[in-house]
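Section 5.1 Outputs to date
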Amino acid sequence: MSRLRIAVFISGGGSNLQALIDGVNNNTLPIEIALIISSRSDAYGLIRGKENGIKSIALDKKALPSQVEVKTEMLRLLEEENIDLIVLAGYLQLIPKEIIAKYTNRIINIHPSLIPSFSGKGYYGERVHEAAYNRGVKLSGATVHFVNEEMDAGPIILQQAVDIDYTDTPKEIQEKVLCLEHKLLPMAVKLIAEGRLRVVNNRVEIKSEVQS
């Protein structure tokens, strides 16, 4: 059985990317990471990819100043590498609608909150944890979801919560949530690789048995 070929999109350090690489290297993830695309040429995640022999490309404004050029090159790379699944792992750019349409229910994202809390426009990176801190929530968490044209609104695959203490700073909240992200993202990718997810009316069914 051929392995699922995935592309990982990043914008920064790529710790979630590393969690996927570790899963491949220890044979717990039945996938092949065929491509890494970064929105920044200085993203450390590109180094992680190159160190593991993965094709790693920066599509930033210096190389491709127009969004049309970015979209065209992105599509070309995805098609060239026969990508089955796109994983957004800290990618801080909007995905072109043409790519969302072409890869319907084949793009997933990890978001650092319990969607629908602290999600949507303006909620990304440290801003999410600062908002959770300012609101004084007792629980935060992480969500893996499919991507559609509405920001952070696609069908939810997995969620997990973590307790927030009164003394936790936004940085400490971020660290707690990041630990969940490193667990949930590989888990979601594995479920997809095993054919165990079905989307019905914007809800995700997780099948208990691996589909042949």
